[in-house]
Amino acid sequence: MPYADLTKEELMELKKSLKAEYKAMQAKDLKLDMSRGKPSQEQLDISMGLMDVLSSDADLMSENGSDCRNYGVLDGIPEAKELMGDMMEVPADNLIIYGNSSLNVMYDCISRSYTHGVMGSTPWCKLDKVKFLCIVPGYDRHFAITEYFGFENVCIPMLESGPDMDMIEELVQNDDSIKGIWCVPKYSNPTGNSYSDEVVRRFARLKPAAKDFRIYWDNAYTIHHLYDLDQDHLIEILAECKRAGNPDLVYKFASTSKVTFPGSGIAALATSHNNLEDIKKQLKMQTIGHDKVNQLRHVRYFKDIHGMVEHMKKHANSLRPKFEMVLDTLESELGGLGIASWTKPKGGYFISFDTMDGCAKEVVSKCKKAGVVLTGAGATFPGGNDPHDKNIRIAPSFPPVGDLEMAAKLLCLCTKMAAVDKLLGE
Amino acid sequence: MPYADLTKEELMELKKSLKAEYKAMQAKDLKLDMSRGKPSQEQLDISMGLMDVLSSDADLMSENGSDCRNYGVLDGIPEAKELMGDMMEVPADNLIIYGNSSLNVMYDCISRSYTHGVMGSTPWCKLDKVKFLCIVPGYDRHFAITEYFGFENVCIPMLESGPDMDMIEELVQNDDSIKGIWCVPKYSNPTGNSYSDEVVRRFARLKPAAKDFRIYWDNAYTIHHLYDLDQDHLIEILAECKRAGNPDLVYKFASTSKVTFPGSGIAALATSHNNLEDIKKQLKMQTIGHDKVNQLRHVRYFKDIHGMVEHMKKHANSLRPKFEMVLDTLESELGGLGIASWTKPKGGYFISFDTMDGCAKEVVSKCKKAGVVLTGAGATFPGGNDPHDKNIRIAPSFPPVGDLEMAAKLLCLCTKMAAVDKLLGE
């Protein structure tokens, strides 16, 4: 029965029994972390073969004859471009292969635009006001970068099929201080949903007032499916922008951080040739080249995109039971109570969970006191400020599935407690 | 006999025979590159064992218990800090371990100061004028960074014992638009000399008008000796700055690019705790962490600084004959002619070569036409502009020693030809 239909007496009674349950949970002395989208040890073990593909008797020459051990090759070896191009669904020659972190690439894109502008535009540091659009709930590290540069982060609500495109179109057409938008278009962080075909098409057809406006398309979960057949599909944005006559509108990012090892993978940027040319002017000042041995290591390990896809099935086998465990627990504990809602992703690393308004902070705090660390309430909004205090990002990947059941139950319990308090007006 | 003492007729005669020699050289159809400080294939082979230390059955945990395969550890694993600290002669806790490129770290330091200032100072992008001191001849990639940011590069002459400290002291004390100085203090690029004790002490005692002035101390060749006993020694600048009451004055850079593999090594920044705190505020926006697996790989390979020192002896064994070959050739071909001078380094990657005034471009061009690529004349000066057109950077590391003899002879020949033309007033 929905909590809203309970009498005050029933709620008081419920409160008492929930409190007893919570005490019993606390007694278990849990120490679990569901705060970040970190692969588990089991997932890391999947990629250990990566450590064996290059040995001291290996040939470390790229297919174009350059010695991967030496200086040079600013934008990546050709075979790495091909592999990452296939992963990102763009031609190899639209890519730059970077170092170990796509976040680093995104930061550098913002920083470069701030210091030197975009394809000849006024450097953003010379402007009085710069705004960036942030789809909420979204990824805290994105918002942190634009906040760090002093931009105004403007919230755009995430809807069922992607962000509110009416709002985005209206804003970017009329305000030339808006220079970009942060997107995680597939298995979004944290909602896990993917942008519909119409949303992607509308993105590609944006007519920004600012010529140096770019879509920051962080396709972090492009091949990170939970199921082999039931997968989200996303229209490829670079090609769609080209078709729409806006070839330079987008920077697309990806990495192998959640394919092989986070921190020891390779990252890439895909964009138009005009953008690439602009970016390389800066990149050649910044470095002589990224780690080509690691590029080669990844190519030799996967061989091709098929190898990568097969590899991702192993990750899916590890992640799927965890997602299902959390979703089953949420359904069995909270289904029909009218005090929470949540997303049911087919890929990615997160489930987005909404409590009743004004309850998220309390739920996270209660979980913490019973030994389960969740992503801080509000973290999915710029400045950590969730105006409804209801969104919590659940990251099921890291803990073992047994622990996860306990953690999910605790989350449900704390959600119930906070809801009862709210309904009692406490 | 010095060319200056030759009669016009003797010079004319000489010109003729040099021209014949040059034609013979051209007929050899050489294709050699002495342009960049790249390790040779022989040197790269020295480090192939690096490929074997981490295999799929290796334990990839850091000594502090963190899994090197996963996210986290912003400033580097402790054992990498210790190794690089020993290499850089600073305590491990004064370090941040970065990715594969110290140039990237330097660029990012300039960029951060430009966008966010230094320890609370006005961001440099908000200033009308920023100047940077460049010791000449020096490293082109340093100068290119500050030029790219629109700073005025101010030349400081390199003297026997280091840069002209009188000039530096005078300038930085009186001009608060001077925000830094590029230094390669040991086996300098390209002169190969090292700063004297007095020079280092005077650096540490600078009293810059700008509170956000920093010394960019690129100790690229800190353990890159040619001889086991006859080595240059440099006073450690961080400690000296601390003693002088200027603990925050310096950023010190190094990498293993010329220890293991260029592009696949690890880089580090050493500086005061105040500076580290300032830098980490930015770094945590830019990345979750650098490649810890590669950090671990380097530590496991070298074990400790002694392992690294022994390793560098192998590089020395490969480089020493090359340096000696070039120096012997220069001496036997040009000694006593009064038309050229050059340095005799005990380490590093370069020999600095001076032609007669106004001859360097011509010499480089003549060499190129006979198949030997040298670093472009002027490259060792900001903007590529050598006011005397005399300095050429010789990089003997890459070609095999046999080729090198040919290349050095060609260089001498072209130097003679240009000198004769100059003396003839042509």
TrEMBL record, chains A, B:
Highest taxon, organism lineage: Bacteria
Annotated source species: Lachnoanaerobaculum saburreum
Organismal lineage: Bacteria, Bacillati, Bacillota, Clostridia, Lachnospirales
Name of protein: Aminotransferase, class I/II
InterPro entries assigned to the protein according to its UniProt record, in alphabetical order: AspAT_Ic, PyrdxlP-dep_Trfase, PyrdxlP-dep_Trfase_major, PyrdxlP-dep_Trfase_small
GO MF term set: L-aspartate:2-oxoglutarate aminotransferase activity
